[in-house]
Amino acid sequence: MDAGPTENPQVAAPAPTRIVSVIVPMYNAARFIGQAIASIRSQTVPVAEIIVVDDGSTDEGPGIVAAAAGVTLVRKPHSGIGDTVNAGVAIARGDLIAFLDNDDRWLPEKTALQIAALDRDPGLAMVFGHGRRFLDTGAEERVLDVRPAVSRCSGLFRREALATAGRFGTGEAHEFMAWMLAAGEAGLRYEILPEIVFDRRIHDANYGVAHKDDQRRAYFHTLKAALDRRRRSTARSPGES
To answer: What is the pTM assigned to this prediction?
Structure first.
């Protein structure tokens, strides 16, 4: 693939006491889950734990994960991405939390770059990077673009940031956007690194491809809810609780 921004810069060794937990929400991802796990395992700074939370899959995905050494598999009834991600956060033991969707991939320097950034600036609550979108036709992979990515999969989060901004929303397609709006309202700071940290796979089974109208409605619903919260907050008098 074309590289775009630098993929393999020199980075300082991160603090050895860091414990990074990676949560992978999974739903009918037998085609891709092996690549996702392999990309986490390829990190130049190893992660402490990989937690795959299966959201009621009906394919062979859970069996593939169960056979993978060193991966924790959690199974639950199908209830959507927000519930699935929250279930992983609830059992993760890391002081740093990361996420990867079951059909995407990390680049090898992701954790090294992002831990270094958090160590440079203790005031950062989270750090993101660039994402590289590629089209997977089944026969070939073709790079579409490279862009800054403020997304769940491109980020590394301090545990305290997740606690401050609250749980991911349930029953909405833009659960991460809603969480980021809450994080902004709480004053949490973040940085976007110039390097590519993950590959975003575009394929025929993407939720956003198969449910474009639902995605659009959820996007505007999330924005409206955030604006309503802001209006209510600014409308209160100083003495109101």
So the answer is: 0.81
